[in-house]
Every structure is written in C-alpha cells, then in structure tokens.
Specification:
Largest sheet: 2 strands, antiparallel
Number of strands: 4
Radius of gyration: 17 Å
Strand order of the largest sheet: 1-2
Structural class: mainly beta
Order of helices and strands: EEEE
Shape: elongated
Length: about 80
C-alpha cells in the first residue's frame, strides 16, 4: 500500500494469496507480473545456520536471511 498499490488478500484452503495492482499506469505500458512464493525450509536444526534464521544479516555486501532469495528470479 505504501508503494501506491491496490492490495487484496484472497483466502485459500492453505496460505492466502496476496496481490498488489497498480492501476495508474499508462494504458500503453506493458503488463508486468511478478510471481513470488513464501514457502521456505524449516529452521531446524538451528546448529546448521551460520547466523540466526530470523535475523537478516549483511555479509560482504550481501543480505543473508531465511528465504531472502527463494524465488531464484531477479528483477
């Protein structure tokens, strides 16, 4: 919402679908779809983590956090 999107949440039998749409673009502008998912691996066993899984950490200019780049598709 803070980015100017109209946001909706669609309930499902599992996790909800969260959708954001921007309606103020020029009609000639291309449509862009970004599909992201939010399933990540379990945190256990904690002793295998290099840093706490729920505390993002910047190392060597890169962000490390649980599920931070899970989609494998960059913009």
């Amino acid at each position: 919402r803070g980015a100017g999107l109209d946001v909706s949440v669609e309930e499902t039998e599992g996790h909800p679908i969260v959708r954001g749409e921007y309606h103020d673009a020029d009609d000639a502008a291309p449509t862009v779809l970004i599909y992201g998912h939010y399933d990540v691996q379990p945190v256990e066993p904690l002793d295998l983590w290099d840093s706490p899984p729920f505390e993002p950490e910047v190392r060597d200019g890169r962000l490390y956090a649980r599920g931070s780049v899970d989609d494998k598709g960059q913009l």
